[in-house]
Fold S-adenosylmethionine-dependent methyltransferase.
Amino acid sequence: MQRAGANAVKAMIDDVIVEKLDVEKIFSSSKRTFRIADLGCSVGPNTFVAMQNITDAVQLKYQSQGFASQMPEFQVFFNDHASNDFNTLFASLPPERPYFATAVPGSFHGRLLPNFSLDFVYSSYALQCLSKVPEELLNKNSAAWNKGRVHYASAPDEVAQAFTTQFAKDKTAFLDCRAKELVVGGLMVLMPGIPNGIPHSSSLTGGIFDFLGQCLMVDTFNLPVYFASPKEMTRLLERNECFSIERMEITLPYARADGLIVQACAMHLRAGMEGIISKHFGVEIIDELFDPFCKKEEEFISMLESKYNEGDQLFIVLKRI
Ligand SMILES: C[S@@+](CC[C@H](N)C(=O)[O-])C[C@H]1O[C@@H](n2cnc3c(N)ncnc32)[C@H](O)[C@@H]1O
């Protein structure tokens, strides 16, 4: 599913590199190495496809600008939490890759690299992850006590507000750090999010997490994820002032809601949430938990269809100014 999301924006990234990457500026200000980071890269292989696409597009851009004889070398920084299985990632690196590979373990909510060390930042399906669950959700006496749910999608306003505030704190820290690490003129491509003006409960991601919540039915566990709208992201970016918004749009990466999508959604959720859920409940429940998705296929498809046309992937391109 993440691959479908990345494929859906490949052409958009190619366009962005053609239109927005100021090769001359980057070339003259820096060096002969073009540095790319994938933040929240996981264990592959999606990251390899994305990094290949970006290096291909940058090479084409250098050629078209008359810098073919001075093609830079590429370095890719693969970032994820230190607990990520970097061994699997590095053992499966494509042998013919056009870049030098470097691991950067640590949270992207903090600094990862020295000042001005990146020309291009890519992050796919990772920015929705919060640094923690807002504390008030676990307090029985708080208006934000999230009884019987694992997510804010269909929760009272106080719950959603606590998530919104946590997201704003985390992403402010994220933007501050990237503003230091990106060179002036460097680009950053981020996704996903939700459309403007629809309640969280009506979004595709909201529906999926509600569905998971109905399978879990617990009071003390919440998923530390939040999907922001273009409006929310714009507000955070205006406060930061180090980036111009070059592109921001909602895309719909999946062609149809059918049995394949149910399987893909279950795998998508399992890939992203298995670690957090098994840490809280133990690994024994995982197979059983994700099984209902397929057992309730009809119900799940009709939920997906009812929310489907909205699009669920926010594609953002920022330039360091
Ligand atoms: C759903 S996966 C997406 C993986 C990959 N980008 C893709 O599109 O297939 C989200 C990844 O983000 C990572 N992640 C979440 N929060 C992070 C953080 N604060 N710093 C670095 N990585 C993080 C997770 O560990 C996980 O590997």
In short: Residues 2, 6, 40-42, 46, 79-81, 84, 107-109, 124-126, 129, 272 surround S-adenosylmethionine (CB under 6 Å). The chain has a mean pLDDT of 88. Residues 157-181 form the longest helix (25 residues). The first strand starts at residue 33 and ends at 39.
